[in-house]
Amino acid sequence: MHWHRKSWTWSITLCTLAICLVLSGAQHEPGYCAFYEECGLNPDVGEALIPPKVPCKDYRKAVSVTGDHYQLLESVCPMLAKGDGQTHACCTVKQLIFLKTILTLYKSVLIRCPSCVDNFVHIHCITTCSPNQSQILKITKTANITQPLGNVKEAVTGYETYISTSFSDAAFRSCQNVRIPATGESAIATMCGKYGSTLCTPQRWYDFQGDSSNGLAPLDINFKLLPEGQTAGIPPGAVLFSEKALNCNETTPTGGEACSCQDCVESCPAVPQPGQKTNVIQKN
Ligand SMILES: *[C@@H]1O[C@H](CO)[C@@H](O)[C@H](O)[C@H]1NC(C)=O
Ligand SMILES: *[C@@H]1O[C@H](CO)[C@@H](O)[C@H](O)[C@H]1NC(C)=O
After folding, report:
1. Ligand closest to the CA atom of residue 250
2. Is 218 in contact with 212 (CB distance < 8 Å)?
3. How far apart are the C-alpha atoms of 224 and 240, rounded to whole Å?
4. Within-domain flag for 179
5. How far apart are the first and last CA of the chain?
6. Which residues have CB under 8 Å from 204's CB, separation 6+?
7. Contact predicate 170/119, CB 8 Å
8. The 3-state secondary structure of 160-205, one letter per residue
9. pTM for the full model?
């Protein structure tokens, strides 16, 4: 009786483990990449402003980055270059040059507010280059792409990534009132698809950034914005990205100035609240 129950439990455990391994097939571990190096052009993307270069699916250890590679990482993704000339990352020089091209276009719209730019860049650097890449995302779509030498490689054309709402809300807030330099119009209005500035939300803003039909994104990214501490919706072993986003009235670690009152409500001088006067009158 006793023995029976035990072996039955064991069978279930072993079965569950086997099913889990077969079904997920994905590994999420710190220090490991989910994809690496350029793999060709995304066959699912049609007209695009920038050729949609996609990375190869490649679960591997994060690589050591030094020298020119490190310098480039530092200039494109300063938040990932904290290693004093040496660090580990999941992106090559080619991938960094490509990321820089895309970020430069977005930056031209957000440039008036360095902390907003920093928050914007942070997410795209983390997903493309973090040494913990396999932990913060799950590949959901791939395509076979024939390489110049005739061999075929599996390229990543879609993934989902897990971001804390404390980061996404703060990043959105830091960019919400930024104006486009040339026209003075709302920058976020151009980055929220059909919603414009008034109906834009953090989720809609990230949905646009991860939509490969927007002409800039080379692949589809499903940004899952989740409250900190929540585990539902995150695969076992994966983690929520939950670093702190900058406020628009803050300077950036790379020396960017706090944003002006025109682009950032928190930077505006405090105006006396109408309520304060009333209180004084009532006191007298
Ligand atoms: C990667 O994960 C390790 C272990 O959890 C952590 O110490 C490190 O700060 C992480 N690196 C980045 C860039 O997030
Ligand atoms: C930025 O604004 C917040 C909220 O108004 C305030 O608490 C904080 O002290 C300000 N920070 C700076 C550096 O001015």
Report:
1. 2
2. yes
3. 9
4. yes
5. 85
6. 192, 193, 195
7. yes
8. EEEEEHHHHHHHHHHHCCCECCCCCCECHHHHCHHHCCCCCCHHHH
9. 0.87
> What are the tens digits of pLDDT across the range 105-152?
999 999 999 999 999 999 999 999 999 999 999 999 999 999 999 999
* Tokens read off for 38: 């350029």
Let me know if residue 63 belongs to a domain: yes
Report the nearest atom of ligand 2 relative to the CA of 250.
13
- From 132, 163, 239, give the residue whose CB has the most ligand 1 atoms within 8 Å, as the site to mutate: 132
CA–CA distance, 40 with 219 (Å, rounded to integer): 12
Evaluate whether residue 257 is within a structural domain: yes
Residue 284 resides in a domain: no
- Which one of 177, 247, 260 would you pick to mutate in the ligand 2 pocket, going by the greatest count of ligand atoms within 8 A of its CB? 247
Per the structure, the complete domain to which residue 178 belongs is given by 31-267
Contact between 147 and 153 under an 8 Å Cβ cutoff? The reply is yes
| Token pair listed for 96 | 């960094």
Please give the tally of structural domains in the chain: 1
